[in-house]
Design a protein that fits this description.
With about 350 residues, the protein is mainly beta. The protein has three helices and 21 strands. The strands form six sheets. Strands 4, 5, 6, 7 and 8 form a five-stranded antiparallel β-sheet that branches. Strands 11, 16, 17, 20 and 21 form a five-stranded antiparallel β-sheet that branches. A four-stranded antiparallel β-sheet has the order 14-13-18-19. Strand 7 and strand 8 form a beta hairpin. It is globular. This is DUF6598 domain-containing protein.
Length: about 350
């Protein structure tokens, strides 16, 4: 009997403590809501940002567009179209070099999920740069570790601007849950019109989003008179293995930066599919008609090979290469960045 009474008392005390914790949490939540006040903005497009201490717009607004619709336009949509050689106005574009969580109020490592989307001048519909569900988080170990981007799926068109919508959350931080999962949420913009007033800048530029519980850096290059290059890698022979382990990197002749198409350390090894084609994390690069495209294949075992392509208004180029034990076919399909 005494043992039973003791067990019952212990259970009752634990239930009492749990109830007290719940009441405290509810009270804190109520106080936070009272401090926020009423949202003066449209709640469909806004959220409370603790860094601003106010409600801010976090989503793109459009009177008629279905904001949940993904852009139906994919890569190579103009490859077979014929454009006039004279008097044709080339559109501008941007390459998203990398995205980093440059600072975190929660510290590191972070298990991050959510979305980053671009809305460009072509149709303002969703073009995903980053998209992960809660059960497929990326572990970010430091401010220097970039998000593994899987887009854009086509060349981004800048007539007036590109709008970026960020909605990143933390499943946990170093194994512990956080009260507010919102790591970064808000809007960024690359203004294409203002940039045309200045001489070209052949360097990586950065847009910063200071929001929620972090600072996010979006690093990009602004590409004038752009064509889209879609990269395909095909393994012809791979020695003793049928997968690729290493890096595939793109850069253009005017910009001193690497655009990571695939890094096996971050995105996993590549297994050859039908016809030996490997599915890299990213495959699209925007290139000015005044530049060349440089593609570097770096095998983890040590072999490195770089091939160079001259952009075209359409059609494709391909070259066979040997890198370490791999024999590969590198193909670039060209398309005008245009409606």
């Amino acid at each position: 009997m005494a043992g039973g009474d003791s067990s019952s008392s212990s259970t009752a005390r634990e239930e009492g403590r749990a109830s007290a914790r719940l009441r405290k949490k509810q009270k804190l939540h109520q106080q936070e809501e009272e401090e926020k006040g009423a949202n003066p903005l449209d709640p469909s497009f806004s959220d409370y940002d603790p860094k601003e201490g106010d409600y801010v717009f976090t989503r793109f607004q459009h009177p008629t567009l279905d904001l949940h619709m993904e852009s139906p336009v994919g890569a190579m949509h103009n490859t077979n179209r014929i454009f006039p050689e004279e008097g044709f106005r080339m559109c501008n574009s941007a390459n998203i070099v990398s995205v980093n969580i440059a600072s975190s109020d929660y510290g590191y490592p972070l298990n991050v999920y959510g979305t980053i989307i671009a809305r460009d001048s072509l149709d303002r519909k969703r073009v995903y740069l980053f998209q992960r569900a809660k059960d497929d988080c990326q572990n970010i170990s430091s401010k220097n570790e970039p998000l593994v981007l899987t887009g854009p799926k086509r060349g981004l068109m800048i007539f007036d601007s590109i709008i970026f919508e960020v909605d990143l959350k933390a499943k946990d931080v170093n194994g512990r849950k956080v009260n507010d999962e919102r790591v970064s949420k808000g809007l960024m913009e690359i203004n294409g019109i203002s940039r045309l007033s200045f001489p070209p800048k052949y360097k990586v530029q950065t847009e910063k989003l200071v929001s929620m519980h972090s600072t996010l850096d979006l690093n990009y290059t602004f590409v004038r008179k752009a064509v889209e290059g879609t990269v395909e890698m095909r393994i012809l022979e791979a020695g003793p293995v049928d997968y690729f382990h290493g890096k595939i990197v793109a850069r253009t002749s005017s910009f001193p930066c690497d655009i990571m198409l695939h890094d096996s350390k971050l995105a996993g090894m590549l297994t050859a599919g039908d016809g030996g084609v490997v599915q890299t994390a990213r495959r699209v690069v925007s290139v000015s008609v005044d530049e060349t495209l440089l593609l570097t294949v770096a095998v983890a075992a040590g072999g490195v090979r770089t091939v160079e392509f001259t952009p075209k208004h359409g059609s494709y180029d391909e070259e066979k290469i040997t890198c370490d034990d791999y024999k590969m076919l590198v193909k670039v399909t060209w398309s005008i960045v245009h409606r």
